[in-house]
Amino acid sequence: MSKRGLLITAVVLLLGSVVMAEDWSGMSFTKHSTYQAVNADGSSACSDGFPIRMIGVVLNDTEDWLDPSPAYDPGIHPWRMGGEAEFYVQAVNLDGTGLDPDPGSAFDDFSGTACWMGQNYGNHSMHLDWGYNYTDVEWTAELGRLNIYGGHGVTDPIRAGDLVEVRALGGLHYRGKMNVNERHSNDRDDTHPDWPENRQDNPSPTDGSGAHDFQIVRLEAGYGLPTPTALPLNLVKDAEDAAIFDATRAIGGERYQSTLVDLKNVKVTDPGNWGGNSDVTVEDASGRTLKLHLGRDGGFDGVQSPPSYFNVVGVLDQASESGRDGYKVLAMDPAGIVRHGDTDVDKDVDIVDFNRVVANFTGFAGTGKTWTKGNFNVEENESVDVYDFNATAANFTGFQPYGPVGTVFAAPGAGPAPAPGAGPAAGEAQLVVDILTGQMKFVGNNAAINNWDIYSPLGSLVADAGGDASPWSGYLINTSNEIAAYMGIGSSVIVDGDLVLDAVFDIGDPMDLQFLYAGTDGVLVSGDVVTVPEPASLIILLALGGAALRRHRR
Fold first, then answer.
1. The CA-based dihedral angle spanning residues 192, 195, 198, 202, taken in that order and rounded to the nearest 10 degrees
2. Which of 271, 396, 475, 507 has the fewest CB atoms within 10 Å, i.e. the most exposed one?
3. What residues pair up with 433 in beta bridges, in sequence order?
4. 273 with 294: CB under 8 angstroms?
5. At 362, is the pLDDT very low, low, confident or very high (cuts 50, 70, 90)?
6. Domain check: are 191 and 274 in the same one?
7. What are the pLDDT digits (tens) for 175-185?
8. In 3-state terms, the chain is what percent helix, strand and coil (to 5)?
9. Domains of the chain: total
10. 374 located within any domain
């Protein structure tokens, strides 16, 4: 057995003997898939009795999903639960840690389980009696006992990626999945003659001794999240957009429930709902739909909805009255949302991404180029084709990241000016700006330009009001910070001499322009920016540095 396996075993044995009266160390593990077993009607088919212990990796930070802030209710207000906390635990195969699983053991599994806590259990429909509510002090003590964010004295809470053992004395089947919980009881004595007003002499136990308490034992912090399972919508929805339900849990939503998935090739149908702690509907190209919940992470706020297709990493959840549908994805982390076109996953879809796709284009026929980073719908085909080209164009953000609106990158340093009066070399082009009128034009020396990008970090451009990018096919972006245009794949505009642009430079603003362009080969060039007339004190070239861009003579 490895040292890591010995350590985990030691922790389990030690904590199993002191946390509760149960002999946890001598208890076999239950599979998550066993705990989540269902009947044909969607009801629970779990055959393991309590107590049970399970092992797995935590998939989310609890506060990104539910708000743990205490909100005690000394009355009855149905479904006003006050503070809540829930995390999802996915089964993990511990091969390589010293705990090599035998086939069929609790470590040979694929499934997951949600663990939920609520403050005002008395507001649940099964009670409607405020005697079952935790006071604020009791609630934060319970969270502290479980080492959950928001708990009293918690400084190092359970986090996504932690390897944990769950020890449960109870649980309930709720809306399609079997949860670990306290069965909605705070374990206060409800036979007391002063119930439910007896708070002082009848406190709720918060030391783990309650008859319905569960325990979380952290086995290893930062163990690491499991690899998300690729999930195109056709795995959970049929051609009629109905949920795929399989009681054997071999396919459909039941298979992926409470596990980490990578939802593929979807776009938002209701972008006005985009924001933290909100629900949006997404659909794929065939019209299959699914609910996507955006978590409470502040990174979702002030961020624009992706205009076209994207992938998202999240937890597949279920909330269904029948137990046979109601699947949705919980996106806890904004970093898990990646727009098609973002080849380098740097939170912008810019001219670099565009040209990487162009350079790897295979067309509909497919010529063996299956560059995964540019084949955004890889589950549907094996080519970097017109879909990928169009997806990149549709999601184009330019230098502006698709983070909080208003973010502006700093301008790079100034480069050396070209020799006075020097024109572009053969096959190259310059951006020439008249600082008296603001007119901009390309000056080319037989330069073939498939796409180009003029960037102003300070917003010094006046966009083309007419929106006609002619002689190029169209604009990728047309704003005061950036203007970029493109031709179809394999095409180009030959610029030989002067070509006046419809957009202009605002002569009242600082000269901060960058000019980038590429030919049909998709190789991106940092072009010269030349001002006329040429005052001696004016810096007339700003070149974009970095390994991604280089001077290139054709």
1. 40
2. 271
3. 440, 531
4. no
5. confident
6. no
7. 999 999 999 99
8. 15, 25, 60
9. 3
10. no
